């Protein structure tokens, strides 16, 4: 019995010591006392690991490089239409700007508790993120993709369940310190990106700035009507699209999600709306990211869609201007 009590006491002493060290490290985090107190020990360690990771990866920057601008970075965040994200090629979070709360309803500390970029996105889009963080099979350092991100419950009630974000950035190398640890190698490029909300996050007052077209479909998603503006975004006239299946334009990687959303709409009552972000193929075989609001009308035995252009590389009446909404 003495041995049992001794072992139990030793285990408690070790736990107390570990928790004491975690509290000490948590106190060093550059966050408010209120944020510190609401962090569990597990979430504290996730946030601590992120800050340690950032310090190690950026320790090669000289003091002059770190302070070359006299303005505080908070001044720039207000001017950004989105939040800044930095990750390793493995998806480990290195930095998330504090204005992330404006776009996801989650504070910077809430996001850092997840530790990886993959924890920020919906499970259906993790494969998209993984393919874009793959630096071995993609020679270009530039990346641009759409993914749906996790939001707070309050944010979902206000903005809906679909939080699609355009992630645009590149892999960048940073100066290396004189000595590096093999445990945490710093010779890897970091993915630096700006995450901006897509058109479904715009306020109604901004609707005039949204590029969109409307379409009407049979219940099997065959086109029956298309607004004339579709010609400028897809390259197809309304006559060319009439009688054609919507699925024939959907990107193969988006077919499963499209079918699930279509099925949900067919099984729902009138007035139910489905939101989906996907790629449609243009007449010249390029791809256009589109955010779709689809509604079923049983009386007309059809489905009506409002198609917002999230990103396109060119308009069919002009010479390749790039635009990201």
UniProtKB/TrEMBL annotation:
CDD domains from the UniProt entry: PAS
A GO CC term attached to the entry: nucleus
Name of the protein this chain belongs to: Neuronal PAS domain-containing protein 4-like
Keywords, comma-separated and alphabetical: DNA-binding, Nucleus, Repeat, Transcription, Transcription regulation
Domain (PAS): residue spans on this chain: 73-134, 224-269
Matches recorded under InterPro entries: bHLH_NPAS4, PAS, PAS-like_dom_sf, PAS_fold, PAS_fold_3
Pfam family, one: PAS
PROSITE patterns: PAS
């Amino acid at each position: 019995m003495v041995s049992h009590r001794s072992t139990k006491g030793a285990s408690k002493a070790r736990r107390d010591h570990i928790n004491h060290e975690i509290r000490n490290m948590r106190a060093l985090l550059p966050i408010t006392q209120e944020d510190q107190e609401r962090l569990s020990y597990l979430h504290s360690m996730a946030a601590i690991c992120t800050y340690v990771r950032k310090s190690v990866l950026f320790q090669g920057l000289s003091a002059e490089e770190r302070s070359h601008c006299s303005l505080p970075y908070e001044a720039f965040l207000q001017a950004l239409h989105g939040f800044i994200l930095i990750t390793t090629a493995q998806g480990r979070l290195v930095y998330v700007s504090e204005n992330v709360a404006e776009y996801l309803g989650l504070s910077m500390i809430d996001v850092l508790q997840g530790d990886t970029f993959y924890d920020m996105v919906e499970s259906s889009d993790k494969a998209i993120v993984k393919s874009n963080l793959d630096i071995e099979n993609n020679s270009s350092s530039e990346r641009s993709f759409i993914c749906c991100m996790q939001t707070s419950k309050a944010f979902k009630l206000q903005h809906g369940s679909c939080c699609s974000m355009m992630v645009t950035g590149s892999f960048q190398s940073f100066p290396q310190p004189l000595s590096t640890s093999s445990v945490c190698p710093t010779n890897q490029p970091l993915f630096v990106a700006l995450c901006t909300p897509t058109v479904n996050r715009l306020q109604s007052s901004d609707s005039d700035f949204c590029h969109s077209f409307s379409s009407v479909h049979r219940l099997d998603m065959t086109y029956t009507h298309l607004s004339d503006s579709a010609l400028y975004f897809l390259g197809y006239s309304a006559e060319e699209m009439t009688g054609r299946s919507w699925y024939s334009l959907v990107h193969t990687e988006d077919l499963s999600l499209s079918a699930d959303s279509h099925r949900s709409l067919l099984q729902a009552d009138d007035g139910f709306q489905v939101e989906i972000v996907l790629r449609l193929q243009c007449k010249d075989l390029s791809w256009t990211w589109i955010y779709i609001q689809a509604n079923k009308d049983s009386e007309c035995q059809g489905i009506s869609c409002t198609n917002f252009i999230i990103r396109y590389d060119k308009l069919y009446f002009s010479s390749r201007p790039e635009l990201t909404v």
